[in-house]
Design brief:
23 strands, 498 residues, seven-stranded mixed beta sheet, alpha/beta, six-stranded mixed beta sheet
């Protein structure tokens, strides 16, 4: 059986450990490969390679770095279908959905291609007599990314293009559930002309993560995952002197007002809730039906949920594939049963779904729950599956208060025809990313991605301008060039401008 190896210093390597883990095809339930599980020795080898590469890569010209990014971007276009099928085979999402995540990741590469303008420093002339001040930014060194299974291409692409384009070298620890996309991207970087050691991949579990968080040669760590692990990563990495981006979990609400087009809202909420089997940190998991919108919205959502076509991700016409593991399937179906036991109305029950020819696959159908309250587990927990809970509210203000009381603040949406309501909503809701008639408000690459409250541990969002600031640090230079005959008096008092 194929073993997926690490990628260190420009080539695949088996690493130092003989430990491996299974990689499944979620549509069949069958093991299709093994992935090497690295530990501290493999992380150390990757850091050594990255540190050596940093000596020359950090001194490369901005033109050289952007040329690599332009070529890499074109390779992502040319291999989008192939990369999409690699993701689909290990994650379970549809090929079109996987291609979509490649496209959104590629947008960050395009942003990195334009860093010549973004990295320009500032200059102040004659701040004091004969004294000028300017600033510029420099890379940190070796930086690392620890990324989740749900976006094996896109989330890493939010990290390493900006880190590499600003002169850093990168170590990626992807999810061991769907590891092949990371190695494929490493091969594309090599074809793009990226020097060996600038981009490295170490597969593994907690041992590899802990090695990254504690290694003295790593300057910064970017992480996306659950909130408890985000807190752990932030605590461990900062205690070892590292910068940290740590994005956590979510419970995203979509509010529907009575003036909204219910067909339009239900179409988009259904896609936002059940796309990628709900395994998105920006998935819509709660629909807040306000006032008279409730009964009509439930009726349309039920119809839309029953129309979702569930099947293997590589089958044309499939809307939703399987969950990533058997454990995920069992956890989601148990949550639907728990909701029913706690008083929710199961309008659509996706449990027990079997797909012809793929009876052992990790499939579950869309589930729709009505009359959910904030005390129920289906509301409080991040289910990370195709379950949409409907909570009823009497007013927009009540809906805003409900969202603000939730511990998560990643994304939210409002469906309305009222500009006044939209403005009030976006100003008052305590959430980092907001959509108005847009169910999954993932910002473009030139804006930053990050939530509030328990959805972001620390204060460093991802990609865009925040990515530039995270992967670089500023230097400020104060300069005087006196004439050879000019005498400038030195003083013992604190210097001031004059």
């Amino acid at each position: 059986m194929k073993t997926i190896q690490h990628w260190i210093n420009g080539s695949p390597t088996a690493g130092t450990s003989e430990q491996t883990a299974p990689v499944f095809n979620p549509a069949t339930g069958q093991e299709q490969a093994r992935v090497a599980l690295g530990g501290s020795a493999d992380v150390a080898a990757a850091v050594t390679a990255a540190a050596q590469a940093f000596e020359t890569w950090s001194e490369s010209s901005l033109t050289q770095r952007t040329q690599v990014m332009f070529t890499f971007r074109q390779l992502l276009v040319e291999h989008e279908e192939e990369l999409g099928r690699i993701i689909s085979a290990e994650h379970g999402k549809t090929v079109d959905d996987a291609r979509g995540e490649v496209t959104r990741g590629r947008e960050v590469v395009e942003f990195a291609c334009g860093l010549g303008d973004v990295l320009k420093g500032s200059y102040s002339d004659q701040v004091s007599r004969g004294v000028d001040v300017h600033d510029f930014r420099q890379p940190l060194g070796v930086v690392a990314g620890i990324t989740p299974f749900n976006f094996p291409a896109m989330v890493p692409l939010w990290m390493h293009p900006i880190a590499i384009a600003t002169g850093n070298t990168f170590l990626l620890k992807p999810s061991e559930r769907d590891p092949s996309a990371a190695n494929f991207v490493a091969e594309l970087y090599k074809k793009a002309g990226l020097p060996d050691g600038v981009f490295n991949v170490v597969h593994g579990g907690k041992d590899a993560v802990d090695a990254i968080l504690t290694h003295s040669g790593i300057e910064a760590v970017s992480f996306v995952g659950s909130t408890p692990i985000a807190k752990y990563v932030h605590e461990q990495a900062t205690s070892h002197g590292k910068r940290v981006q740590a994005l956590g979990g979510a419970k995203n609400h979509a509010v529907v007002l009575p003036d909204a087009d219910l067909e339009f809202a239900a179409n988009h909420i259904t896609a936002g809730a059940y796309g990628s089997a709900g395994e998105r940190c920006m998935a819509v998991s709660v629909a807040v039906a306000v006032g008279d919108a409730a009964d009509g919205l439930v009726e349309v959502l039920e119809r839309k949920a029953r129309e979702v076509k569930v099947g293997p991700g590589d089958t044309p016409g499939t809307d939703m594939g399987p969950l990533v593991t058997k454990a995920a399937q069992e956890r989601v179906e148990k949550a639907v049963g728990t909701a029913a036991g706690q008083g929710a109305t199961v309008v659509v029950d996706g449990r027990g779904l079997k797909v012809d020819g793929h009876e052992e696959g990790f499939f579950t159908g869309p589930s729709l729950l009505d009359h959910v309250t904030t005390e129920m587990d289906a509301y409080k927990e991040e289910l990370f599956g195709p379950v949409l809970a409907i909570v009823r509210a009497e007013s927009l203000d009540e809906a805003i208060a409900l969202i603000n009381a939730n511990p998560y603040g990643n994304g939210t949406a409002l469906f309305t025809a009222s500009g006044e309501a939209a403005r009030r909503f976006q100003r008052n809701v305590k959430v980092g990313m907001i959509g108005v008639n847009v169910p999954v408000p993932v910002p473009m690459s030139y804006y930053s991605f990050g939530g509030w409250k328990d959805s972001l541990v620390g204060d460093s969002p991802m990609h865009g301008p925040e990515g530039i600031r995270f992967y670089t640090r500023p230097k400020v230079v104060t300069t005087r060039w006196p004439q050879p005959t000019q005498q400038v008096a030195a003083g013992f008092d604190f210097p001031t401008s004059s």
